[in-house]
């Protein structure tokens, strides 16, 4: 073994701590309280199942984070503060009767109150509540509460599934996030623009900074020394029109994806939908085995590549130019037809139907 590698391994002091903390968690999760929680949740689910018919799925309520999904006549997007206040509680409760409600974690955590959502769930005898949680990989305290409260719980990431399954057995139904900043209809209308825009030999990678993830921040900072369009996003980006945001994404051939942990971020799907090639950590390689991704449509970077990113990105540009418009369209179709939020919402509804009908 290389001497430098051995020296570093010898300096890693957290291995025993990881084992001790996991043993403590495993011990806590074997408490009879979790059996009782799921027993009573089963009773509630059986009662709901008796009352459910196919008509229940004719009305689907979505919280605000899903506003860019296709809204058929049977879909209703709830007001932003619906689960953030008890004002007009009874009226709101009755409006949800006989429907499926799909809640995003951001719509009850950001300025919201998990206790208010819980009151809705416990008092709604003919409403099915599903939570789609985009942050179960790092916001575990909120995720556990959401799993405990909801009838069906859908995490977006494969991290922490054992822990979450103790709060809700449905937690193993992983439904990844998808492109959400543009409606699919908008993307389809702009397909020719995406296929024909003149693209720069540049790498786009504007990330939201998170204080808790210093390794991720350091990777973004390191790559930004070489590529000017890699860095941290400013608040102004979210104020841009959807057209300006599309132009910014579609101008680039390559997109750097730096997850907070080892998750598949929404940026990955945005890159596909706008025809670019996502460049992701090599640790994600196994995630894409059954994605239908062409081998040329994603590149992987290693720790070595982070320090020599120009070498890898030059290969991305060569591949992009070689595949040309055919590659752009292939990625666009994969992104819009299989990895948009519309596809994910449809999948959640289908799982709910299969469980309750």
Structure description:
This protein is globular. It contains 16 helices and ten strands. Strand 6 (200-207), helix 11 (214-224) and strand 7 (230-232) form a beta-alpha-beta unit. The chain is α/β, with parallel strands linked by helices and 357 residues long. The strands form two sheets. It has a five-stranded parallel beta sheet with strand order 2-1-3-4-5, sandwiched between helices. The chain has a five-stranded parallel beta sheet with strand order 7-6-8-9-10. The chain starts with a helix and ends with a helix. The protein has helices spanning 3-11, 15-28, 32-51, 89-95, 106-109, 114-123, 140-149, 161-167, 184-189, 191-196, 214-224, 242-250, 266-273, 303-307, 309-338, 341-356, and strands spanning 60-62, 75-77, 100-104, 128-133, 152-155, 200-207, 230-232, 252-256, 277-281, 299-301.
